[in-house]
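Action item from last week, closing it out:
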Amino acid sequence: MAGHNALPFVVTGDVKRIFKLLDDLRVNYVEEGDTNCLITGESGSGKSELVKRYAAKYPRRELEEYTHIPVLYVQLSSPQTPKAFTQQILAAIGDPQGGKAIKTKEAGFAEVKRYCRECGVELIILDEMQTVIQNRSPGVMASITDWFKDLMNHSKVPVAMVGMPWCLGVVKENDQLDTRVGYRYYLETFSVSSRFSHFEKFLELFSAGYDFANDFSLLERETAYRLFAYSSGIIRAIRGQIIRAASLAEAAGKPIDLVCFQEAIRSRGIKDHNNVFIMPVTDLRLREIVSSSKWTQQKSHNKESFQSAEFKTYRLTKKLELIEADDD
């Protein structure tokens, strides 16, 4: 049975394409060009895990004369000022003072440039981009997007920004930033109405290292539909449910079976009448994303600046035929 500290990472076609893109940006970077990228996806789509895995392929190395950091991964956390923005980057690089010694944003960007040069940084990954721009008034959005543009100008290395789909709308609002971000990639969630085989292939690859009972398989069509009903095709939910079922099976000293998935749902506080691994298949509701979350420029910061993703709902017949649901 797969260990808890060795979670599988499924290299899908999307993962391969994005890995290749990031490799190409590092090799073919053009100063003042458009060789920066934006990777977006809904919450739980696997984008953060993807870029963390990419950064892990090129770990920092403590050499005799300097620290080599080919790929700098930065997880942003709601910086309120441009100085705080650069401080988070400096802390990720390993600045002894975590960037606290800088007095101005200009000094911060200068330090980032110095470290990038001295540490051989070839790519900066900025994860959780939306934490920098959400809940901001329209009046300050232009200056905030300038932070990203200034980082691209000063660091002299390509920058990969990672965030929610509506981050694309924010990039487009700043012409100078927009022209610098020549590569945009949307990481889709799985669909139930088309290409369901992609979802099933993911289940096969992710669960390959686990020990399942002989009479139970995630690839059995009804079981796959039940797992989709729970997850809506979102990778974080799929992984979480399989891992939880595996943990319960390990505690019971048995292979993973249907009961493990039923108990995994119960352990989340969900009652049996809503347990997708117990309820009749005709009562299941399978929701897939049909329109990603979007940026909407508002005149007042008291209004939401983005629209949530839109879903379409399906149900199943007794013969496991998929049809549109007339209820929400």
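Closing note: Residues 192-328 form a domain with the Helicase, Ruva Protein; domain 3 fold (CATH 1.10.8.60).
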